[in-house]
Design a protein that fits this description.
The complex is a heterodimer of chains A (228) and B (403).
Chain A lengths: L9 H5 L15 H8 L17 E7 L4 E10 L4 E10 L2 H15 L6 H6 L2 H7 L12 H17 L13 E3 L4 E2 H9 L5 H8 L9 H16 L3
Helix pairs in contact in A: 2-3, 7-8, 7-9
Chain B lengths: L3 E2 L10 H7 L15 H21 L6 E4 L2 H15 L6 E5 L4 H12 L4 E5 L9 H7 L4 E5 L13 H15 L5 E5 L11 H4 L3 E5 L10 E5 L25 H36 L5 E4 L9 E6 L4 H10 L2 E2 L1 E2 L12 H5 L4 H5 L1 E5 L6 H21 L16
Helix pairs in contact in B: 1-8, 2-8, 3-4, 5-6, 8-12, 9-12
Classes of the chains: A alpha+beta (228), B alpha/beta (403).
């Protein structure tokens, strides 16, 4: 479950969707279509009043093409997510990703907030049967919005010590290099592992993180500069 | 339900009449026009006849028509070919901010290589180039001006003849042959007047695939006095400006397609204009919607609208599920992940550009189709708006760079 996706799933192949390399595939998988055409758990206007006090997280902006807002209701005793509602402004894969994330967070009695904080874009993509390479960036906002909502819940529950400020996720455990550092390096023009290492030394302390670094480089390159 | 294809600015189906004149040149008349035997001669005659047809429509001589693989190649040849052949006279080139990538990318590439000093003139809120902006940008070392005839995304028609006259005036004042004037007429080929003497252009790009002709064939008009440098060298075909065995069925198809659309354009334009205006009127009844491009000086088949608070690609996918096929200027639908440079160039906000959609009508479009789109669209916009956390003010439709 925690391993990054390195190859498209069979289902994704059938849907003519993913390929991690050089893929300009466009058509979505059946799972993406299902969540796009029949989105689960989105916040209907008439339900919004019932969530007036619920914890909320929002990321993105309409100017950059994606914006998401997430509301959660949490059982204070178990810290499991009972309900998750969302609204998304974005393309088909952004809507499908948020919908799938809402299912993942609430199925099987709901994730604990600790589990929910571990949810990564790759997990959502995996469940969607993959996304076209240039659509990967669409799936990253949902989990960010969820983490923001979790912080908001702890704030409202008067447990400020449990709020986790997003300083980035640590990738190189030895050198404490985060995904933000890699993002910055890519934005700065480093487009290969070598160039990112020249800027950050990532992976020299903890070589086991290199596959993940390479994936992040691909991801940020695509996010900021488009598909190759 | 009948599929409703409203993406004729992207590609048009082949007219069966065009297919039928092309067919023999795939099989029984498949000779090489360069061969000295009877089948070769037959092929050469077909190419010559096609050239005459096209030359007649453009009001030019037949040796001024160069066949290429399409609009993109014609643009590349016109721009790179002119710039390189006239490097001694200067390297300043003027173009507009709303050109097709086949022009903008080429000029920016040449600029990066130091072969071109590029001026990009802005457009107004409707996407129109002001001829006086072009005139003001002219310099002693300007060798080429390239402005499209009609825009592929928003349909705005440019005042090509006025720009042409401004260039003629400049040349007279300067006693110079420069600059030359190129126009990409790919979107205009089927609907506008292509007489180059009225347009005052020296180079004009044509394409068959937007006028119910085959893909993979285009032409470039090059005024006889203008020397350009070839991009593709080899056997010396097309006056040594475009080597490679002639695409005989394609050439025959281009000429027939062009002949038919030009012959029928008055009736068809009037029909399309009615459909276009009804579609625009119907879509604009949806709240928080605006028309992109010029309200009247636009292609008869093109409607581009922006819907606030939703993202164009999502709407395209919902329409696709209804059997309605359109395109979008949203970032998510582009390789660059940037929204349409054309819509941004008109001064519209990023928010407005992300929700833009293009409907381009064609031969197969009926009033029933238009009414069906008008009846389906509000529900799709509403569904996406209900899901959207965004509720923007109409000020996002205001223009920042209104002249």
């Amino acid at each position: 479950m925690n391993a990054p996706i390195t190859a498209p799933t069979t289902e994704a192949r059938q849907g003519d969707v993913v390929a991690p390399k050089n893929d300009k595939g466009w058509f979505y998988s059946d799972a993406v279509k299902e969540h796009f055409f029949r989105p689960k758990n989105f916040m209907k206007d008439e339900d919004e009043a019932a969530y007036g006090d619920a914890a909320m997280g929002m990321v993105g902006s309409p100017a950059c093409g994606d914006a998401m807002k997430i509301w959660i209701k949490v059982d204070p005793a178990t810290e499991r997510i009972l309900n998750l509602k969302w609204k998304t402004f974005g393309c088909g894969s952004a809507i499908a990703s948020t919908s799938m994330m809402s299912v993942m967070a609430t199925e099987n009695d709901g994730m604990t907030l600790t589990e929910a904080r571990q949810m990564k874009p790759q997990h959502i993509m995996e469940r969607l049967g993959g996304l076209p390479a240039r659509k990967v960036h669409c799936s990253v906002l949902g989990d960010k919005a969820l983490r923001a909502a979790i912080n908001d819940w702890y704030r409202k529950a008067n447990q400020p010590e449990k709020i986790e400020v997003e300083v980035g996720r640590i990738i190189d455990k030895v050198l404490k290099i985060t995904d933000h550092d890699i993002e910055e390096a890519v934005l700065d023009g480093a487009d290969t592992l070598e160039k990112v290492q020249a800027k950050t030394k990532v992976g020299t302390g903890d070589p086991s993180c290199i596959p993940e670094v390479e994936q992040l480089i691909r991801f940020y390159k695509e996010k900021f500069f488009g598909a190759e | 339900m009948k599929p409703i294809y409203l993406d004729h600015a992207a590609a048009t189906p082949l007219d069966p009449r065009v297919l039928s004149v092309m067919q023999p040149y795939f099989t029984e008349m498949a000779g090489n026009p360069g061969s000295f035997h009877t089948p070769g001669l037959r092929a050469k005659e077909a190419v010559t006849a096609a050239r005459q047809t096209i030359a007649g429509i453009l009001n030019v001589r037949e040796d001024e028509i160069i066949f290429t693989s399409g609009g993109t190649e014609s643009d590349n040849l016109a721009l790179t070919g002119t710039v390189r052949a006239h490097a001694k006279a200067g390297k300043h080139v003027i173009t507009s901010s709303v050109e097709h990538p086949a022009v903008l990318e080429v000029l920016q590439f040449l600029a990066k290589r130091g072969e071109v000093d590029l001026t990009i003139v802005p457009v107004d809120e409707y996407g129109t180039v002001n001829p006086s902006d072009v005139a003001k940008a002219l310099r002693a070392d300007t060798v080429l001006v390239s402005i499209m005839y009609a825009n592929n995304e928003i349909g705005t028609i440019q005042p090509i003849a006025d720009i042409g006259r401004a260039i003629l005036k400049w040349r007279k004042e300067q006693s110079s042959v420069y600059p030359y004037f190129h126009t990409d007429a790919c979107q205009a080929t089927g609907v506008l007047d292509l007489d180059v003497e009225k347009l005052h252009v020296d180079l004009l790009t044509l394409n068959a695939s937007k006028i119910y002709g085959p893909k993979g064939i285009g032409a470039l008009y090059v005024r006889r006095a203008l020397k350009i440098e070839a991009l593709i060298r080899g056997g010396g075909q097309e006056k040594n400006l475009r080597s490679g065995t002639e695409n005989v069925p394609g050439i025959v198809g281009l000429a027939e397609a062009l002949r038919l659309v030009q012959l029928e354009k008055e009736v068809e334009n009037a029909r399309l204009t009615r459909l276009r205006d009804r579609l625009a009127e119907g879509l604009l009844t949806i709240p928080k919607t605006r028309l992109n491009g010029h309200p009247t000086d636009r292609l008869p088949n093109s409607v581009n609208v922006s819907f606030l608070d939703i993202e164009g690609e999502a709407a395209v996918l919902y329409l696709d599920a209804e059997g309605i096929y359109v395109s979008t200027g949203s970032a998510c639908a582009s390789l660059s992940l940037d929204p349409s440079h054309v819509i941004l160039a008109t001064g519209l906000s990023y928010e407005g550009a992300h929700g833009s959609m293009r409907f381009t009508l064609g031969h197969s479009t009926t009033m029933e189709d238009v009414e069906r789109v008008i009846s389906v669209m509000p529900g799709i916009v509403e569904k996406l708006r209900v899901m959207s956390p965004v509720n923007l003010d109409m000020k996002y439709f205001e223009h920042k760079n209104t002249l």
